[in-house]
Amino acid sequence: MAGTAAFNFSSATSFLRPSSSLKFSSKPSFLPMRFSPKTHSPPRILRINALTSNDIKVGTNLEVDGAPWRILEFLHVKPGKGAAFVRTKMRNYITGNTVEKTFRAGSTIEEANVFKETKQYTYKDGAQFVFMDMNTFEETRLNEKDVGDKTKWLKEGMDCNLLFWNGKVIDFELPITVQLKVVDVDPGLKGDTTSGNSHGLTSNPLFVN
């Protein structure tokens, strides 16, 4: 069946015309994004303790004249006359100098804020020895003069204790025991029977207990 359909354009136009109550912005809108906060290791608390001379023992770290010192020897002295005192032998972490110093018994002294961290010796970069924190992978570099004669005992993969003071490395400790592998033995002098061991040994660190 043929027929005609009537269409009202005015009503269609009004339907497509946006309402005056709606507002459009030419600027793009973005949904807020939530990021997880970064996790950081807790800051190291600066520990400064006031000690007395009665607390001195071997291994005590003191700060004297603005420098860190380690007690090597000590002796409490009570003379028949006069006040008691403590005689000590100390080593300066920075210069390596060793001096003798006395403290009046009961006098207040400042403990040096020396702490140690275990780091692994990974490799040598030129004149620098690179130690790495195996948890954070942070590197610490020491010069040859800082390592000194300990270089002959260092082996890649060896765990060492680095001592810090005021954010600087002032010393480091090798493992207590090191197993060595003999790689070369020089023959002793012919007819030399005076020395118990006349062989020259050359060894390399093998691994650490």
UniProtKB/TrEMBL annotation:
It comes from the Eukaryota. One of its GO terms (cellular component) is cytoplasm. SUPFAM superfamilies: Nucleic acid-binding proteins (SSF50249), Translation proteins SH3-like domain (SSF50104). GO terms for molecular function: translation elongation factor activity. Signal peptide: none annotated. Residues 116-170 form the Translation elongation factor P/YeiP central domain. Keywords: Cytoplasm, Elongation factor, Protein biosynthesis. Pfam families: EFP, EFP_N. SMART domains: EFP. The keyword Mitochondrion does not apply. Belongs to the elongation factor P family. This is Translation elongation factor P/YeiP, central. The lineage of its organism: Eukaryota, Viridiplantae, Streptophyta, Embryophyta, Tracheophyta.
